[in-house]
Amino acid sequence: MGRHGRWLAAVEIDGAGDEPDEERDAVRVARAFERAYQQAYLRFHRRDGKHAELSGASRAVLTHLAHTGPLTVGEMAQHLDRAQSVVSDIVTQLAGKGLLARERDPANGRRTLVWLTDDGLAFLDRDREVLSVDLLARAVALMTPQDRAALVRGVRALVAADDEHRQTTDENPTSRRTPT
Fold this sequence. Notes:
The protein is mostly helical. Among the domains are: 1-44, no CATH class; 50-126, Arc Repressor Mutant, subunit A (Orthogonal Bundle), CATH 1.10.10.10. 61% of the residues lie in helices and 8% in strands. It has a two-stranded antiparallel ribbon with strand order 1-2. Strand 1 and strand 2 form a beta hairpin. The longest helix is centred in the last third of the chain and has 25 residues, at 145-169.
């Protein structure tokens, strides 16, 4: 049995043939999933390094524009509770990287609006990715169509079950986080 085979055997759910005990079974599945998720994260997390990093303030400007639509620098400064000169500097930097563009307001030619370029929108899409789509696609391409569907269906079912739990308990999703 190869190295990966031994790991997979280690995450198998033990206790097959035991009396049904839903709570113990849920804990076993949770542990197996947690170990499998660790391995998946280590294999497929994004590895684009520091060169692709933006400051938190730059990310905030991009994200805010994605939610609000085009704004003036003054409006952004007010929304972000930052000095207009600071936001203007950030916009200039991001425009220099091709992520933002300034354009005249069609409703009022005296105003200049700032908006995301196609590259800016694509950057935000990539920036939100926790896992590398390229690395995942390479592995998923080797899976059977049934396994692909089961993978997505299983993760969606896990999230849906947690959503249902939150709705029935009014639990705040951030209240469960444990300090690191």
